[in-house]
Design goal:
111 residues; mainly beta; four-stranded antiparallel sheet; three-stranded antiparallel sheet; elongated
């Protein structure tokens, strides 16, 4: 048998566990729609700590603007998107990527 004697614990600290689960479901809300100077993208992350990204696509599917969100904690998030000045008015698509899950919504941009 082995014994350890004279062990003293002086301080306990919490070590946060980083969970990187990809959500199976989330929804996004865009407002105002149509928009001109700024678009609010609202979504709720139900679980995990995940890398996120928002991409604005034109109607031909070309990415015209993206915003990296970094690591996101669970909860509600609202991100303000200002479109590039050189894009024309028209129909666009906003895609929110959370880990390996994504959602896309239509939005109209009016200059």
């Amino acid at each position: 048998d082995r014994y350890i004697d004279d062990v003293r614990i002086t301080e306990l600290t919490d070590i946060p566990e980083e969970v990187t689960q990809t959500p199976s479901e989330f929804d996004i809300k865009l407002y105002p729609n149509p928009f001109n100077s700024q678009l609010s993208v609202n979504f709720e992350l139900p679980t995990g700590i995940i890398d996120g990204e928002i991409i604005l696509y034109n109607e031909l599917g070309k990415g015209v603007h993206s915003v990296g969100l970094g690591k996101l904690n669970p909860g509600e998030h609202t991100v303000q998107i200002a479109p590039p000045e050189d894009i024309p008015s028209g129909l666009y698509f906003i895609t929110v990527n959370l880990g390996e899950t994504s959602k896309t919504r239509k939005v109209v941009y009016l200059k």
